[in-house]
Amino acid sequence: MQGLQEVFDLKPKELSWITCGYMGAIGSGQTTCGLLISAAAALGLACGKGKSGTPEENETERARAIALVNELYRDFIDKFHSTECKTLLDFDFSIEEPSRFIKEKIYENKCDTFMDFIMNRCMDIAEQKKIS
Q1: Are the beta carbons of 120 and 5 closer than 8 angstroms?
Q2: DSSP symbol at 17
Q3: Which of 31, 73, 104, 121 suits a disulfide with 25, CB 3.0-4.6 Å?
């Protein structure tokens, strides 16, 4: 979320807290990769930036957010074949010690690769001005 705040010029800093509790797919490992969840939140915020009212009151921007999130997820699945944290990491946070994940730097060859992919796709979206 913090990196995407910069990409989409989203402020205030408090927005970086939106997904901070989502480590290890909320301890279950059986839900969507937190990087994708954060990217979906950032894309929604970016599409609604400067708008008044709810997404339902701004259907064009809401539809754009839905399309962009769907595009990101499809691209991610095409590349990594899943969005499930446990499958992507081959690490189950519900039965394995999270400190081992950090200590052994399991994230380096996994999460870092996913983050790089997501950041590049979101920067492409920003550069192509798909968000007004």
Answers
A1: no
A2: G
A3: 31
The helix (run of H) or strand (run of E) holding residue 1 is none
Q: Which backbone phi and psi does 80 adopt, to 5 degrees?
A: -115, -5
Distance CA 15, CA 54 (A): 17
Return the number of other C-beta atoms located less than 10 Å from residue 99's C-beta.
Answer: 8
Tokens of 91: 């690490």
What is the torsion angle, in degrees rounded to the nearest 10, for the CA atoms of residue 21, residue 23, residue 25 and residue 28?
-100
Token duo for residue 122:
């979101």
Q: In whole angstroms, what is the distance from residue 97 CA to residue 120 CA?
A: 31
* CA terminus-to-terminus distance, the chain: 19
Amino acid at 40: A
| Cis amide leading into 98 (omega within 30) | no
User: The tokens of 121 are what?
Assistant: 């796709």
67-102 confidence digits (pLDDT tens): 999 999 999 999 999 999 889 988 888 888 888 888
Q: What are φ and ψ of residue 32, in 5° steps? A: -60, 145
Specify the pTM: 0.85
Cβ–Cβ contacts within 10 Å for residue 3, how many? 17
